Amino acid sequence: MAGRRALKAVLIDLSGTLHIEDTAEKEIFTSLSAARSLVERKQLRPLLLLEDSALEDFTGIDTSEPNAVVIGLSPDHFNYQTLDQAFRMVLEGAPLIAIHKARYYKRADGLALGPGPFVAGLEFAADCRATVVGKPEKRFFTQALSDLGCSPTEAVMIGDDARDDVGGAQNAGMLGILVRTGKYREGDEDKINPPPHLTCDSFPEAVAHILKKLL
Amino acid sequence: MADTDWPGCGKSLKGVILDMCGVLYDSGEGGGVAIPGSIEAVKKLKASDLQLRFCTNETQLNREAFVDKLKRLGFDISVSEVFSPAPAAVAVLKERGFRPHLLVYDGLLPEFDSVDKTNPNCVVIGDAAEKFTYQNLNEAFRVLIGLEKPVLFSLGGGRYYKEGDGLALDVGAYMKALEYACDLKAEVVGKPSPTFFQSVLNDMGLQPHEALMIGDDLVNDVGGAQNCGMKGVQVRTGKYRPSDERHSTVTADGTVDDLAQAVDMILKQRH
């Protein structure tokens, strides 16, 4: 562990780690506002495939005659009609911006498809690459940390998604702790390389470990 | 060797395989509309000494209903000449002991009547159109994620097709979605699977180099056929896009305006 400084920050995934959601997964504020900044910077007029609660983050953005597609977790919009509309736009060159590409998440009634599969489908059909704003993009983690004023080597991420939470964080230079709650399924810890710094049963155990071993 | 290139190869051909949607007709309101010149082109091929088969990834209708639709449009065509993914999939399912959870258009369900669908151990996905709801996709996803060895069969793997006056997502997009969600690779039954093309060639009793495929889908029709050793010609109807002629991996042996032109060029070589 040469080169690690004292721990200064802990990033915590919300849905599936702290609690199990039965409504749309709430995104960490940073990735929605990062998506908004991107849209503003490039002066895009987005077709927003987002849950109502996420739409609030885009108030004031012009969405008439859309020339870009912004896609987050949005079961209401993931039907063939809206996806066809998004596809036609992207095929003609409209940028495809994904809030994140989670494969699935845990709902009260079981596992449910995240936005990732639909983004992957559009990428395949239109032969394009989406710009992913949230996890597991490195920039997402580094931006969150820069807001906190610390470097990746001073931070730990706790999450239930081996690839997007833990893998993404570790790729950005942080330590990652995988919790066996939420969408976690047996064997997930073997899906990333390097493996999680720690895999434990739940958030309280993760915190105990941090307090005991990492401070 | 001019005779082995298009259109010279028309002289030594023994059989022609036609894609259907985008070559014979365009999908759309009221069942679709015949592409100008295609009905006549099929007649000319049948009147020639060339063998003829139709090869489609159409999976919204069972074969009988599909052929009826084309007959109503004016085409001379019969079920025994048509190769589609559903019957091929049924054969695979039975052969390998798979019981499917089906995510397919209602019109296709009759093709699966003889298949045991209890206690599914795989998912079969076709062009389900408006049945591609979040709920139905989620259900299919849950079946897969709950299996120790998840298996997904996709009836075709196309990216899009022409529908009305625009393009619509084909089964391939939804196949990719489930592949990504479950971290698996689907098995494609239908174009461009070599097994599928081979079954058509076997039925015709021809070697690949004796047959020509004509289609609107550069990758799945033309590329798929070339992959098997056949020649492949693309038509500029259906889902064709100008960028197809600058594709990074597939180069058609020939590109023609439509089926009528392709057939005229072939038959001219044989006189």
Could you walk me through the main structural features you see in this protein, from its secondary elements to its overall organization?
- The complex is a heterodimer of chains A (215) and B (271).
- Chain A is an alpha/beta fold and 215 residues long.
- Chain A has two domains: 9-20 and 136-214, HAD superfamily/HAD-like (Rossmann fold, 3-Layer(aba) Sandwich), CATH 3.40.50; 31-132, 3-Layer(aba) Sandwich (Rossmann fold), CATH 3.40.50.
- Chain A has seven helices and ten strands.
- In chain A, the strands form three sheets. A four-stranded parallel β-sheet of chain A has the order 1-8-9-10. A four-stranded parallel β-sheet of chain A has the order 2-3-4-7, with helices on one face. In chain A, strands 5-6 form a two-stranded antiparallel sheet.
- In chain A, strand 2 (46-49), helix 2 (52-55) and strand 3 form a beta-alpha-beta unit.
- The longest helix of chain A has 13 residues, at 29-41.
- The two termini of chain A are 13 Å apart.
- Residues 20-27 of chain A have low confidence and may be disordered.
- The mean pLDDT of chain B is 95.
- Chain B has a six-stranded parallel β-sheet.
- Chain B is 32% helix and 19% strand.
- In chain B, helix 2 links the parallel strand 4 and strand 5.
- With 271 residues, chain B is of the alpha/beta class.
- Chain B has two domains: 15-84 and 191-269, Rossmann fold; 85-189, HAD superfamily/HAD-like (Rossmann fold, 3-Layer(aba) Sandwich), CATH 3.40.50.1000.
- Chain B is built from eight helices and 14 strands.
- Chain B starts with 14 loop residues before the first strand and ends with a helix.
- The chains are: A alpha/beta (215), B alpha/beta (271).
- At the A-B interface, helix 3, strand 6 and helix 4 of A face helix 4, strand 10 and helix 5 of B.
